[in-house]
Specification:
mainly alpha; 5 helices
């Protein structure tokens, strides 16, 4: 479904979250854009392109997660164990050998949310 901006109220709604969407896609807030000078059609096209890019990135990430799980399961682990191992690997990769952060990520990571 493509976004269409047909009136001022819809434009104001879009302006409230376009910066967040841009940050989701590119990792930083938009700079150098004068959104007020965009026509409704130009703004809708800009936002639709961002939505498509975000959906594409989400698909790539989902495929990578599924591949990682399958790779670990190919070693003989069941899905629960594979997910726990991947959470532990993320904790170590992100925070090195800092036990506070490793403990924290295990408490609040995927495994914790699935088995509490």
């Amino acid at each position: 479904m493509r976004l269409a901006i047909t009136n001022q109220e819809e434009r104001e709604d879009v302006m409230m979250w376009v910066s967040d969407l841009y940050k989701d896609v590119y990792g930083f807030r938009p700079r150098g854009y004068n959104f007020e000078s965009f026509s409704n059609a130009e703004l809708a096209t800009f936002v639709n392109d961002l939505i498509e890019e975000r959906e594409h990135e989400a698909q790539i990430e989902s495929e990578a997660v599924e591949k990682a799980i399958a790779d670990v399961m190919s070693l003989g682990a069941d899905k629960e164990t594979a997910l726990r191992w991947l959470d532990q690997a993320d904790a170590f990769f992100m925070y090195g050998d800092d036990p506070f952060y490793e403990d924290s990520i295990e408490k609040y990571g995927w495994v914790a949310s699935q088995f509490e």
